Amino acid sequence: MAASGTNRRYEHLVASLGNELFEAIRSAKILMVGAGGIGCELLKNLVLTGFHDIEIIDIDTIDLSNLNRQFLFQRKHIGMPKSQVAKESALRFNPDANILAHHGNIKDSKYGPEFFKKFTLVMNALDNIDARRHVNRLCIATETPLIESATEGYLGQIQVIKRGVMECYECQPKPAPKTYAYCTIRSSPTKPIHCIIWAKEEFLTHFGDQERVVNQEQEEEITDEEVKAEEAKIEAIKEKSFSEYLFRKLFYLEIYKKIRIAQLTKKDLWPGRETPVPIMLDQLHLYSNGTNDSTNSVESLPDQQIMSLKQNADLFIDSVNRLVERRSKTGAMDFDKDDDDALNFVTAASNLRSHIFTIPVQSRFSIKSLAGNIIPAIATTNAVIAGLIVVESFKILRNSIEKCRTVVLQKKPSAGRLLLSCASEKPNPDCYVCSSHFVTLECDTDLMTLGVLVEGILRGRLGMNEPSITVDSDILFESGEDLDEEEVKRMKLQSAKKLSECRIVNGTIIEIDDISQNFQLKISIVHKNNFAEEGQTFNIVGKATPLPTATKTKGEDKLDEKAQDDDEVMIVDAPAVPPPAPSKKRKAQFEEKDAKKSKVVSLD
Ligand SMILES: Nc1ncnc2c1ncn2[C@@H]1O[C@H](COP(=O)(O)OP(=O)(O)OP(=O)(O)O)[C@@H](O)[C@H]1O
Ligand SMILES: [Zn+2]
């Protein structure tokens, strides 16, 4: 018996859990995905509960902002991989544990089905829907039980997922992503958030992965000699100084062009508002500095100060210089709110744009929270949720998965309880991930390109990672790390073609295969060119994430933002976590079932 003789540290566990469960815990092989807020608490729980064989993976390195709640990390660890430091700190709680740390992205193909098959149980401690969907698919494909979790402020939720037994992460549609009208972002911003989104787009356009940029702006054609002359002047600076060139392009030329378009077409592009004022880099001293001294109190921290126009301009030039150098060394970057250069770029660019459109400028602190989609994190909530994950894992290890419960942590008690629990739902027979593997796509096959199908729909909406597309046994599109240069070029050309040019027309059934997720899906195409809502270009009939709507979602309340429906809608960001609070209907179900039969969080 594992606990006898050699290790007295487990005696109390054997006494409280019983031999059988303790043995199951000792021999289970656990994968923990994410070593952040929930992950740190969970890893500590796992090693203290006697779990022996644990692999952890996290993509990130430790940031100062993690230290208030991710207690396995200290100041001296800043910049080091979370997975490695979490492992070392957890081993101090129990040196007997066998922990393997991976510093990487769970979506990487080396963590595919073969990797997942090794585990008895997977525990998610993630912060984004994209990675959650990916892990869900691999657990469905390999029939590995998964415990999913999320927290947001005081709210939290855990859910157990097992193919064929209970619903998967994608059985119920997720809330629609926040949306903004495309033209508001590109041409007529009215609020700081519009400028921040624009700045993030610009960051990705200049420093991100070009292949993945879907919302590339179509440059407006304008045959105006004055504009052409300005363009030529600015283009000439490009080789000498990219940062100056980019400044003049974004904050002078593009605005100047829009003003000329308005003049030439006699259209009022900014009805009821002031015409934007382009910024001239050489004449910054002529502008009023855009700040009001009373906005900066003496005590406010540097990050909370409102910068002057000159300070924003300097910050922009400096961040671009640094980013250009980094790009030449390390290649394309993703926007990361904890990356100083990236955040400085977005702060400066968004403030400069705000200045142009007479929108109040913001502190770096407030831009960070909006650009990074920051949701409040509370250590206690993470601790409660991490504890519940272990409780549910016991039921799985006792081969009583049917006893597992979905548990919701609420902000205020209802019926005297902060925790509501409910038996897990059965798999949804229409779920395209765990049941039907079939959806219908309505789109205009003469307008939609294969590129939009791949990026916007297969990756963006249907959560795929490396999709390939087959029609009647012909492979139309492939993706993945193993493509050679020639194939990548061919796929790029292929992506620009319209669906109808690729023989995808009304009635075609296309087959999608994603080896990295071991996931297959059939899509039935319905050609349609009259969509009820203007700007809408496709519709997925099935249980995919619903189309963005103009109605307010929870996150949008905070931003006080509504998409205007007279324009093409831009999908900005998926919410960071699934909604921890259940819908009213679901809550009613919880309460009803709870009152009838649940012992909140039972150990059996
Ligand atoms: N695709 C992924 N592969 C591996 N780890 C991931 C992936 N996506 C997210 N993670 C990790 O999941 C963890 C989630 O933790 P948490 O929600 O506390 O977020 P955080 O990034 O640490 O905090 P904050 O967002 O507040 O800065 C993070 O450490 C993050 O790096
Ligand atoms: Zn499902």
From TrEMBL:
The THIF-type NAD/FAD binding fold domain covers: 15-431
GO CC terms, sorted: cytoplasm; SUMO activating enzyme complex
Involved pathway(s): Protein modification; protein sumoylation
Kindly give the Gene3D superfamilies that the UniProt entry links to this protein. Ubiquitin activating enzymes (Uba3). Chain: B, domain 2 (1.10.10.520), Ubiquitin-activating enzyme E1, inactive adenylation domain, subdomain 1 (3.50.50.80), Ubiquitin-like 2 activating enzyme e1b. Chain: B, domain 3 (3.10.290.20)
- Cite the entry's keywords alphabetically: ATP-binding, Coiled coil, Metal-binding, Nucleotide-binding, Nucleus, Transferase, Ubl conjugation pathway, Zinc
Question: Which segment of the chain is annotated as a signal peptide?
Answer: none
Which region ranges are annotated with the description Disordered? 547-604
Which residue windows are coiled coil?
213-240
Where the record annotates domain Ubiquitin/SUMO-activating enzyme ubiquitin-like, the positions are 441-531
Domain Ubiquitin-activating enzyme SCCH: residue ranges: 302-368
Basic and acidic residues: compositionally biased ranges: 553-562, 588-597
**For this UniProt entry, what is the primary localization, expressed as one broad class?**
nucleus
- Where do the catalytic residues lie? 183 (glycyl thioester intermediate)
State any GO BP term from the record.
protein sumoylation
Q: Which GO terms describe its molecular function?
A: ATP binding; metal ion binding; SUMO activating enzyme activity; transferase activity
**InterPro entries documented for this protein:** ThiF/MoeB/HesA (IPR045886), ThiF_NAD_FAD-bd (IPR000594), UAE_UbL_dom (IPR028077), Ub-E1_IAD_1 (IPR042449), Ub_act_enz_dom_a_sf (IPR023318), Uba2 (IPR030661), UBA_E1_SCCH (IPR019572), Ubiquitin-activating_enz (IPR035985)
Taxonomically, which superkingdom? Eukaryota
> Where does the chain bind ATP?
34-39, 58, 66-69, 82, 127-132
**Positions bound to Zn(2+):** 168, 171, 431, 434
Q: How does it assemble?
A: Heterodimer.
Q: Which family does the UniProt entry place this protein in?
A: Belongs to the ubiquitin-activating E1 family.
Name-wise, this protein is SUMO-activating enzyme subunit
| Organism (species) | Planoprotostelium fungivorum
Its taxonomic path starts at: Eukaryota, Amoebozoa, Evosea, Variosea, Cavosteliida
